[in-house]
Amino acid sequence: MTGESRRGLGKDELAARIARDIPHRAFVNLGIGLPTRISNHLSPGSGIVLHTENGMLGMGPEAHGDAVDLDLINAGKVPVTELPGASYFHHADSFAMMRGGHLDVCVLGAYQVSARGDLANWHTGRSDDIPAVGGAMDLAIGAKETFVMMNLLSRDGVPKLVPECTYPLTGVGCVSRVYTDLAVFLIEDEGVAVRELFDCTFDELVRLLEVPLLNRTREGDR
Amino acid sequence: MTGESRRGLGKDELAARIARDIPHRAFVNLGIGLPTRISNHLSPGSGIVLHTENGMLGMGPEAHGDAVDLDLINAGKVPVTELPGASYFHHADSFAMMRGGHLDVCVLGAYQVSARGDLANWHTGRSDDIPAVGGAMDLAIGAKETFVMMNLLSRDGVPKLVPECTYPLTGVGCVSRVYTDLAVFLIEDEGVAVRELFDCTFDELVRLLEVPLLNRTREGDR
Amino acid sequence: MASILDNPTAAVAGIADGATVMIGGFGTAGQPVELIEALIASGATDLTVVNNNAGNGDVGLAALIRAGRVRKIVCSFPRQRDSWHFDQKYRAGEIELELVPQGNLAERIRAAGAGIGAFYTPTGYGTSLAEGKEVREIDGRHYVLEYPLRADYALVKAYRSDELGNLVYRKTARNFGPIMAAAATTTIVQVEDLVPVGALDPEVIVTPGIYVDRIVRVPAPAPVPESIGAGQ
Amino acid sequence: MASILDNPTAAVAGIADGATVMIGGFGTAGQPVELIEALIASGATDLTVVNNNAGNGDVGLAALIRAGRVRKIVCSFPRQRDSWHFDQKYRAGEIELELVPQGNLAERIRAAGAGIGAFYTPTGYGTSLAEGKEVREIDGRHYVLEYPLRADYALVKAYRSDELGNLVYRKTARNFGPIMAAAATTTIVQVEDLVPVGALDPEVIVTPGIYVDRIVRVPAPAPVPESIGAGQ
Predict the structure, then answer these.
(1) Minimal CA separation from C5 to chain B, in Å
(2) pTM here?
């Protein structure tokens, strides 16, 4: 599915795949880091409105050159632009918008996701790490749907979709879908369902993960 | 002290007396009914800013003729005007301003005030009365100081400054001063103190009221 | 995201019997009269209505009450000089009243939109309106626990909207509009003026379009009853 | 009511050792750098600071921390690429950290200004940041009880003020300014532009002057460090 030697989707392919699943005209928050790339794959006619938790709806692309305005930044503190129809509001209003369930979709990176949709993405838990949570816990539980975007395996080859998170939790039971380089998973009441496979088979996933999996791929096991 | 045959201050004299005790540049809410008259006695140079709980600071006098704008009303639903430096905000912000203790003074009418500063001004408690509270409970407990403006006696000659309120309460221990036609009372930790007398003596008040009184008049008992 | 409807009838379509409907306005200022008229015409009944008042004169919310469509009203100040339709229904035992201090009403609506589960407020402590409610002393002050107030629909009047539903209001007609827009599942807004996307300064938008589901332009405001000065 | 001061030094006068000081800004956007510099020059120490972050680069809040004036910081995102002064103090055990999820931080500040005694928030439930906190299930959802966050002083940067302290902000530099202004006993604001009373449209004022105690005009913004992209 990719021309690269690695298996599964590359980061931009994955971002494009997630972008396809975001409904037109949705209000969306893309977490800092990897999920930010999704914005490059949203079609201009989609009417999708981006929220940044530091107080803005209608955020445009990253600003460059003369367009840089240090009063206009995103949650990652990168200068951005303003689209027509944008609005500004203060921090309590911005997080009320999140916590109140008004965003349609939020996409976050993760260290781990559990089979019940628990999310761990804010702290390694290492004692020498200085903890910093930012808006992660609000984002995790706020949106109508929380998607995770991550590689299925860590750099050490350890699965990040797990029966129980061993990293400190960001939110409990908050993830609805997990988009990875190898597969798309749906977190459902009955368990974790595989919706789509990228260069691997359902049986391979079953062997790879300790999480029981349901096969909900359209084509069945390839 | 008045040219009228009745004893004590008339309504406008009382309003003027209260106006003198409102500090320059204070933020003030004048309750609907009698306290509204105080605005007529605030000097233009006082810099006092009036709040109306339906979402405005910098409220001006009642509007007449062409100045009437039905989108610009006070808490009594009377058309008013806007002074330079005014601002508008929504209802949650307006009551946050009150509840958060940002107003300097609020002046309210009352059915009864207790010796501990409990206020009863929203409901007669009669079973055939339709209850309506409006912003009374928020005003009572919100401002830094809550003044009451009332006649000391009801139309039936019954004192309205009482040991315990018999009318349903609006707020507990919230009144700091009671301005009446016959005297100004301060509600203090040690009890109720008489600060000023209008056409009556301290001893007369002592005989009139069931509330123990401290004499804090400047001139002593006249 | 907001849709633009052709008329108030289309805008209120789907409001079912038994729905909870927030209606903006403080007295007549900000009251979405044409949306209420369309709601009456729709026939929806057995409604729970959240509003500061219980109708003024004979139009708008008063007409909805007169028509017998309101099973219960949640408000702070029902009794006014011109609340005769409510008064009659209330005395006849034909309408249920939940009386809420105005600031608690506003904060409960705000809490619903902001995802707050409950909050401790000092307002009403020690009064009959706090009877049966949980209380707590925090840092020497007494508070009452109040819960969010949500709605299926909010009917709101704003001054101007862009085509994304970004709203600005006019003077004290702003009142409950912004918080009700955020507290309802479906928010329906009537505006005097509808402008293209980009025509509103992003700094001055009061209600971002994320809170608005349906917009209808009602250019000429309906006549407002002469019932001013009718209490808080 | 607001007073207009001549310079940042006069504006921050009276901030005592041990004070709790809220400082506006998200990273450097909205950070009142000149007020912080004046605070450093004032010598005040043993401060508790409330800010979203823990300093960027070498100026502003970072310089206050470097100078050893901050005993404790309450924030959501201390660790950034350019938070080296905080990092060093923290690893040396010379600064206390209260880590609060960003939305709970904002809501706790808002609660202080709004007179709310405490509130139930879903954010953080089931995580280590809710350990030891009271929890409650309401309508099937789990919440954590959080308390207001008050301050003796707030240092805020706004874009423009009138002479009554009515404020407007600029783009995402608005962030914590409005809620901090309402949560502090004394609110000190630096603005780029000071205009006469009546020059601001009453509909667009974000922070009414009731929340502002001292205003100082700082026309030319200080150079902002080139440390963008340093995390949330």
Answers:
(1) 25
(2) 0.96
In this structure, what are the phi and psi dihedrals at residue A51, rounded to the nearest 5 degrees? -105, 140
The answer for residues whose C-beta is within 8 angstroms of residue B83's C-beta and 6 or more apart is B58, B59, B60
Identify each DSSP E strand in chain A by its residue range. 27-30, 49-52, 56-62, 80-88, 105-108, 112-114, 119-120, 145-149, 161-162, 175-179, 183-188, 191-197, 213-215
CB contact, 8 Å: C170 with chain D?
Answer: yes
* 8 Å CB contact of B87 and D205: yes
Q: Which residues pair with B31 in a beta bridge?
A: none
Tell me: pLDDT of D224 over 90. no
Q: How confident is the model at residue B219 (pLDDT cuts 50, 70, 90)?
A: low
Residue B2 lies in a domain: no
What 8-state DSSP symbol labels residue B36?
A: G
Segment C123-151, tens digit of pLDDT: 999 999 999 999 999 999 999 999 999 99
Number of structural domains (chain B) is 1
Q: Is residue B4 part of a domain?
A: no
Coil/strand/helix, residue B40: helix
- CA–CA–CA angle A81, A83, A89 (5° rounding): 80
Q: Give residue A188's domain range.
A: 11-221
Residue in D117, D136, D204 nearest the CB of C122: D117
Using the predicted structure, report yes or no on whether residue D221 has a pLDDT greater than 60.
no
Residues of C in contact with B132 (CB under 8 A): 76-80, 99, 231-232
Is residue B201 assigned to a domain? yes
- How do residues D119-144 score in pLDDT, each as one tens digit? 999 999 999 999 999 999 999 999 99
Q: How many CB pairs under 8 A join A and C?
A: 61
D14 CA to chain A: closest CA distance, Å?
28
Measured distance between the N- and C-terminal CA atoms of chain D, rounded to whole angstroms: 35
Residue B1 in any domain: the answer is no
For residue A119, the domain's CATH number is: 3.40.1080.10
All chains having 3 or more CB pairs closer than 8 angstroms to chain A: C, D
Q: Measured between alpha carbons, how far is A47 from A22 in angstroms, rounded to an integer?
A: 11
- Measured between alpha carbons, how far is D215 from A185 in angstroms, rounded to an integer? 54
DSSP chain D: --EEESSHHHHTTT--TT-EEEE--BTTBT--HHHHHHHHHHT--SEEEE-SBS--TTSTHHHHHHTT-EEEEEESB---TT-HHHHHHHHTT-SEEEE--HHHHHHHHHHHHHT--EEEE-TTTTSGGGTTS-EEEETTEEEEEE----EEEEEEEEEEEETT--EE--GGG-TTHHHHHHHEEEEEEEEEEEE-TT-S-TTT-SB-GGG-SEEEE--SPPPPPS--S---
Q: Is the ipTM here above 0.90?
A: yes
Report the catalytic residues of A. Answer: 53
Touching partners of C (3+ C-beta pairs < 8 Å): A, B, D
DSSP-derived pairing of the beta strands A105-108 and A145-149: parallel
Domains and CATH numbers, chain D: 3-10+18-115+150-217 (3.40.1080.10)
Q: Looking at the complex, does the CB of residue C169 fall below 8 Å from at least one CB of chain D?
A: yes
